[in-house]
Specification:
Length: 315
């Protein structure tokens, strides 16, 4: 079968090549064999290609955690509801994905005990379903770890609202009852973010530095945000957040800080443990690792599909 693979680490533009590799063996046990229709590499894929050394993964490594496709074979004890010919989508478990057994190929073996696999809703094409799993699960986890309740009536800021995770979260938090979502993005993506439901879009380039703009526009007590999601990773946005994030508000970061891995780790630790009397920021900071446990993933998918249905159902 054909697959996009890489051997040395590096930028995808430099190392990714279309090659021919062996088709996975016939499924055994609970597994099913899926003919991949679409796979949607995300930012995490591109980062892993740059940092995971070759000796920790397969020689011809494949990126890709999300997929959609059709079941073409099944193991003898595969779940009864996963039938040959069914259209499915999902995300692969973390370990084989990191080791280079991703979804950017023609066929993948999926084990429902560890991988996430779900039927594609009849009103969603396979192309769109391929981008839904990981973004839906992460948006669900943001609400879970950020303690966002249904019917919250929050004013929410999303830094990086046009990306995969940001765009899904905008829709999800509105379905959870947010009264207003303010999104930041480039001018080129402003209409996209408005179309997702954001009431205001901030061009981060035209209004740099962003934290100063937010302090001016949202500094009054009745204007401050109840919740902030940073998908980019801006330490300045967090340390200045008391100027525009309410007391008791939560700041969730899922982005990598732009200063490199060392500073990402350093900032994360300091933001969690540094007390205010030593200069710590007096706002709750949350950063979490995405959970690919099938139960959590299934809950995330159900949540995201219900949010999308709520938002886009005929009024």
């Amino acid at each position: 079968m054909q697959a996009w693979t890489y051997t040395p680490k590096g930028s995808y533009r430099d190392v990714l090549k279309l090659t021919t590799i062996a088709v996975p063996q016939a499924p055994t046990g609970n597994s099913v064999l899926v003919k991949v229709a679409y796979s949607s590499p995300n930012g995490g894929d591109l980062k892993l290609m740059k940092i995971i050394p070759q000796f920790l993964r397969e020689n011809h490594s494949r990126p890709g955690i999300d997929y959609s496709g059709i079941i073409v074979a099944r193991g003898p004890t595969a779940p009864a509801d996963l039938r040959i010919g069914d259209k499915v989508f999902g995300m692969l478990r973390r370990t084989p994905y990191v080791q280079g057994r991703g979804s950017l190929c023609e066929y993948i073996s999926v084990d429902p005990k560890g991988d996430m696999v779900a039927h594609v809703p009849t009103n969603i094409p396979l192309e769109e379903a391929s981008a839904l799993a990981s973004t839906g699960v992460v948006a669900f986890l943001i609400c879970k770890h950020g303690l966002i309740p249904p019917g919250n009536n929050y004013r929410v800021l999303v830094n990086g609202a046009s990306g995969g995770y940001g765009s899904m979260f905008v829709q999800g938090v509105l379905a959870q009852g947010a009264r207003e979502v303010v999104g930041t993005c480039s001018a080129a993506n402003a209409e996209l973010v408005r179309g997702l439901g954001a009431s205001k879009v901030i061009d981060y380039q035209a209004n740099a530095p962003l934290h100063q703009y937010l302090a001016t526009e949202y500094g009054q007590p009745d204007q401050q945000f109840d919740f902030i999601l940073d998908t980019v990773g801006s330490q300045a946005l967090y340390i200045n957040s008391p100027k525009y994030l309410k007391k008791g508000g939560v700041f969730v970061n899922i982005g990598d800080y732009t200063d490199g891995m060392f500073w990402t780790i350093f900032y994360t630790i300091m933001n969690h443990v540094r007390p205010t009397w030593l200069g710590g920021t007096p706002r709750k900071f949350v950063m979490f690792s995405g959970d690919t446990d099938p139960k959590v993933s299934s809950s995330g998918i159900e949540w995201s599909l219900s949010c999308l249905y709520y938002l886009w159902k005929p009024k």
